[in-house]
Amino acid sequence: DSGEMIQERTGRSVREIWVSDGEPAFRALESEVLVDALASIAHPTLVCAGEYDDLAPMANSELLADRMPNATLQRFDGGHLFLIQDRAAFPAIIEFLGAATTGGVQ
Questions:
Q1: Cβ atoms of 17 and 31 closer than 8 Å
Q2: Is the separation of the CB atoms in 28 and 2 below 8 Å?
Q3: Where does residue 50 rank: exposed (0-12), middle (13-18), buried (19+ CB within 10 A)?
């Protein structure tokens, strides 16, 4: 499983990577194993991010969108709870999913 692969490659558990020095972070993305694997995700992907998210920095979302060949980054007004803070978020996600299921997403 991916947790075992991360442990084997980094010598650290997913939890240790995720929470480092008592500060939540998406540090797993720093692992070359995971970053390199993003390029293999060929499906259309919508990466959603809150502009003011203190838990998941915008740089993480930008990295995801940059490394996946068919990803689109959509920024929403809000923080980690942008889905309820920005009324445009839910309709945008539904629109993306609808286009993906009808073949409209490139």
A1: yes
A2: no
A3: buried
Report which DSSP code applies to 28: G
Q: In terms of Cα–Cα distance, which of 66, 67, 34, 61 is closest to 48?
A: 61
For residue 68, give Cα distances in angstroms to 12, 24, 62: 25, 24, 10
List the pLDDT tens digit at each of the 106 positions of the chain. Answer: 556 766 777 777 766 665 554 444 455 555 666 777 888 999 999 999 999 998 888 888 998 999 999 999 999 999 999 999 999 999 999 999 998 777 766 5
By DSSP bridging, strand 45-50 and strand 71-76 are parallel
Q: How many other β-carbons are positioned within 10 Å of the β-carbon of residue 3?
A: 10
